[in-house]
Write a structure and sequence with these properties.
Layout (H helix, E strand, L loop, with lengths): L1 E6 L4 H12 L6 E7 L18 E2 L3 H4 L4 E4 L3 H13 L5 E4 L10 E4 L1 H13 L4 E4 L2 H15 L3 E9 L7 H23 L5 H12 L31 H14 L7 E2 L10 E10 L5 H9 L5 E3 L4 H7 L2 H4 L5 E9 L2 E12 L2 H20 L1
The protein binds NADP nicotinamide-adenine-dinucleotide phosphate.
Length: 372
């Protein structure tokens, strides 16, 4: 029976992964072993089955007795343990949610509804490292897979509206703590029907700018504001998050002629759904109905939302999509720039299709590959 080690299962991505695996009844046909970097001997997750106490996540001997290791532990862990067990001659499959190995020659970024053929050819050429992609990139590709497959896309500009969860669990809490402060300081004015919005704004702004406003994790207010900077700077003037748009999209798709993807990545006060406003340059004037059909038929999770206010408010918001696997695309139309320019808006849960779901699915694909 296959032995599969799980590391990082209690973090944010890991716990969403565990939840999805439980929901889909994935814990069967293999022997799972749960690892920890902080609580050796402790209790593992409730999987509805007997599991041994937690093993040491740094025990490379034990790790190298696994057929597959699934890690959602983080980049530092990957950088330390992955080369170490490979040096020991480990030939197993390494499945990872961190970005550390994404651009390595012998790894594949996984998003099977979009790049199943790339994954299959990796498996047949004995590639052993499979890594989940950047959340924003994966969500954009899920939304556009049908159009991208048509070969009509010349370039894409993506302006993002990224959720707090992408920055980590502490940041999600900080966003709500910031909202709480703003709610508390404006409560008396809000309760007074005679108060003006301008008076409320003054109190809110004063608090946003005060030294005591909770910004330890974001470094700036997010509630009542936005932060147009995500991750570290690159020489190009892009942030690393913006750089990934081009680098990872083309790597996932294994394009022969790379498709330029660029834009500004912005953190907004959503909890766990990233949204993106897209400008898509097509090679020719493809009728909008055909573009709609291509998008709609891209994969079974994409949902085309008609370009009207009611449908948009009902289906195309983080509040509507949070916690679901649906990837809606709407606000679709041709732009004034010319008939080859299309705009669209898309939303997706960055912990599901943006992180845990591609990992859950590649695990099943590898299990199937090994048992086939
Ligand atoms: P995380 O929540 O910080 O969890 C990582 C590990 O931290 C846990 O597995 C746990 O390891 C330890 N930990 C320490 N204190 C904890 C606590 N109070 N609650 C839960 N875990 C605690 O990290 P993450 O956001 O899931 O990200 C994991 C990896 O996925 C990162 O490389 C990240 O870049 C990547 N990723 C994240 C996202 C995202 O949206 N967050 C999206 C795509 C990829 P032990 O059990 O060993 O102590």
């Amino acid at each position: 029976m296959l032995r599969i080690g799980f590391v990082g299962w209690r973090g944010m991505v890991g716990s969403v992964l565990m939840g999805r695996m439980r929901e889909e009844g994935d814990f069967k046909g293999f022997e799972p072993l749960f690892f920890t970097t902080s609580n050796v001997g402790g209790e593992g997750p409730d999987m509805g089955l007997e599991i041994p106490p937690l093993k040491d996540g740094y025990d490379v001997e034990l790790l190298s007795s696994m057929d597959i290791i699934v890690t959602c532990q983080g980049g530092d862990y990957t950088k330390r343990i992955s080369p170490e067990i490979r040096r020991l001659g480990w030939k197993g499959y390494w499945i990872d949610s961190a970005s550390a190995l994404r651009m390595e020659d012998d790894s594949i970024i996984v998003l099977d509804p979009v790049n199943r053929s790339v994954i299959d050819s990796g498996l047949s050429s004995d590639i052993k490292t499979y890594v989940g992609g950047n959340c924003t990139v994966s969500l954009m590709l899920m939304a556009l897979s049908g159009l991208l497959a048509s070969g009509h896309v010349e370039w894409i500009s993506s302006m993002t509206y990224q959720a707090a969860s992408g920055a980590g669990a502490k940041n999600m809490k900080e966003l709500i703590a910031q909202m709480d402060v703003l709610g508390s300081v404006s409560k008396a004015l809000l309760d007074d029907p005679a108060s003006t919005a301008i008076a409320i704004d003054e109190v809110v702004t004063q608090n946003l700018r005060s030294n005591t406003f909770p910004t330890e994790n974001f470094g700036a207010p997010l509630a009542g504001s936005i932060i147009p900077w995500i991750d570290s700077p690159m020489d190009s003037g892009q942030t690393r998050e913006e750089w990934k748009g081009y680098a990872e999209s083309n790597r996932i798709l294994q394009t022969r002629t790379p498709i330029p993807v660029d834009g500004v990545c912005v953190r907004v006060g959503a909890m766990r759904c990233h949204s993106q406003g897209l400008t898509i340059k097509l090679g020719t004037d493809v009728p909008i109905d055909e573009v709609s059909d291509m998008l709609k038929n891209g994969n079974r999770w994409v949902q085309l939302v008609s370009n009207d206010k009611e449908s948009t408010l009902q289906h195309l918001t983080p509040a509507a999509v949070n916690g679901t696997l649906t990837v809606p695309v709407g606000r679709l139309r041709k732009m004034l720039m010319g008939p080859e320019y299309v705009t669209a808006f898309t939303v997706g849960d960055q912990l599901l299709w943006g992180a845990a779901e591609p990992i859950r699915r590649i695990l099943n694909i590898i299990i199937e590959h090994l048992s086939g």
